[in-house]
């Protein structure tokens, strides 16, 4: 039986499918480096995964070691992470301290957890030989919801994800299998952290695609100095202090009449001007803006598609 079809009940995406050459109903796809085997649900078992948007980020349910866990989508995280307290409560083997994990809000100690059974119901199941675990209490506080798992770039690299904001559903299939009509705008992704080109004030910036961010756009001060000349929306808020659990950051907020993503014109976009810790690129484009579209991202083949979602009747 073929591997699952990734398809939404929207006329514009009626031809969105994923396919792969292996015929079994559970298709084994090796994950490079980590040697993970993903067993995808067959066509009859495949179904969309419901999600919520909590403080601007996607939160959905998966199963870890037989226990339901709350996860966020964050391709900006270079590796997936499991909450340490959850791992211990689930009876998983947690190792000794093994360095630190650097986040946008500071750093935290990490440990190694082995042999992690994991499944996204309706999508795939696997056993991860080893992954990082850390205390996610601070992340849960920021999101305002208990978070047990971060679905990071390692899983994005081997899957195609289709995110339907209108229906609050996502589908997951094997990388390289997305087939869309040529009328759906496609974008090439570049760099180890996927970047796309966006026109701000008709000037190009290279922005990291960050589904774990609730910002619309983040621009570095250097990028803003290059592209912001003449922008005067009359509603700018300058030097706003944004405080998280570790520090305060001065942020300049600009309301942009429009930005352009290839042939797509996005109107009334908020840009946060602040230092960006990533050495490459001019900032990021977050789910705050991408939620306006049906997003299909296949990071493993460096492609992304955006389409206007069809409203739910």
Largest sheet: 6 strands, mixed, barrel
Run of helices and strands: EEEEEEHEEEHEHEEEEEEHEEEEHEE
Q: Estimate nothing, just give the exact number of structural domains.
A: 2
The share of residues in extended strands comes to: over 45%
Mean pLDDT: 82
Residue stretches low in confidence (pLDDT < 50, at least 5 long) are 1-27, 239-246
Outline type: globular
Number of E-state strands: 22
Biggest sheet, strands in spatial order? 4-5-10-6-9-8
CATH architecture of the largest domain: Beta Barrel
The helix-and-strand class reads: mainly beta
CATH class of the largest domain: Mainly Beta
Structural key phrases:
mainly beta; Cathepsin D, subunit A, domain 1; 2 domains; six-stranded mixed barrel; six-stranded mixed beta barrel; globular
Describe, in short, the structure shown:
It is built from five helices and 22 strands.
Walk me through what this model shows:
With 313 residues, the protein is mainly beta. The chain folds into two domains: 164 residues, Acid Proteases (Cathepsin D, subunit A, domain 1), CATH 2.40.70; 119 residues, Acid Proteases (Cathepsin D, subunit A, domain 1). It is 9% helix and 48% strand. The chain is built from five helices and 22 strands. The strands form two sheets. It has a six-stranded mixed β-barrel. The longest helix has 7 residues. The radius of gyration is 20 Å and the shape is globular.
């Amino acid at each position: 039986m073929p591997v699952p079809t990734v398809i939404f009940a929207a006329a514009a995406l009626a031809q969105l499918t994923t396919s792969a050459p292996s015929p079994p109903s559970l298709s084994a796809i090796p994950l490079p480096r980590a040697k993970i085997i993903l067993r995808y649900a067959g066509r009859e078992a495949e179904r969309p995964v419901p999600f919520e948007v909590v403080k601007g980020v996607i939160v959905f349910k998966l199963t870890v070691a037989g226990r339901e866990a709350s996860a966020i989508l964050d391709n900006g995280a270079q590796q997936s992470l499991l909450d340490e307290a959850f791992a211990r409560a689930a009876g998983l083997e947690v190792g000794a301290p093994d360095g630190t994990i650097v986040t946008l809000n500071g750093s935290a100690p990490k440990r190694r957890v082995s042999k992690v059974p994991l499944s996204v119901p309706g999508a795939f199941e696997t056993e991860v030989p080893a992954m990082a675990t850390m205390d996610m209490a601070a992340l849960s506080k920021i999101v305002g919801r208990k978070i047990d798992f971060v679905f990071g770039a390692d899983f994005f690299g081997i899957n195609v994800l289709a995110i339907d904001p209108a229906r609050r559903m996502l589908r997951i299939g094997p990388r390289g299998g997305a087939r869309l009509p040529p009328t759906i705008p496609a974008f090439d992704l570049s760099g180890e952290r996927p970047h796309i080109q966006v026109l701000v004030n008709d000037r190009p910036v290279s922005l990291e695609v960050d589904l774990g961010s609730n910002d619309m756009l983040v621009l570095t001060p250097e990028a803003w100095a290059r592209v912001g000349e003449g922008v005067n929306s009359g509603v700018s808020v300058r030097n706003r202090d944004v405080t998280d659990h570790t520090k305060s950051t001065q942020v300049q907020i600009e309301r942009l009449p429009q930005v352009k993503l290839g042939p797509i014109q996005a109107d009334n976009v908020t840009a946060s001007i602040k230092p960006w810790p990533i050495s490459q690129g001019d900032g990021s484009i977050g789910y705050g803006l991408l939620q306006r579209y049906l997003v299909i991202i296949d990071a493993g083949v460096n492609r992304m598609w955006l389409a206007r979602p069809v409203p739910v009747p």
